[in-house]
Amino acid sequence: MAKKIKVELVRSPIGREESHKRTVAALGLKKINSKAVHNATPQIQGMIRKVGYLLRVEEVSE
After folding, report:
1. CATH 3.30.1390.20 matches 4-60
2. Which of 2, 9, 14, 28 could form a disulfide with 39 if both were Cys (CB 3.0 to 4.6 A apart)?
3. CA 22 to chain centre
């Protein structure tokens, strides 16, 4: 079974680089405190690493 990661947007992407705004949107996060659950693929982990300063990340146990 694939590991799951829950990401939550805790800081606003307003005033950040455009690529960071797009990365937040690609993670499925729209507003502050919005949450999304993703499989822990290398692509998702790279996106989280790029905008990690805006997020709260935790592993989800199944």
Report:
1. yes
2. 2
3. 11
* Domain positions in the chain: 4-60
Which two tokens mark 51? 């905008």
Alpha carbon distances (Å) from 55 to 1, 5, 10: 25, 12, 5
Rounded-to-integer distance, Cα 1 and Cα 26, Å: 23
Give per-residue pLDDT as tens, 1-41: 689 999 999 999 999 999 999 999 999 999 999 999 999 99
CB 2 within 8 A of CB 38: no
DSSP β-bridge partners for residue 36: 7
What is the model's pLDDT at position 2?
81
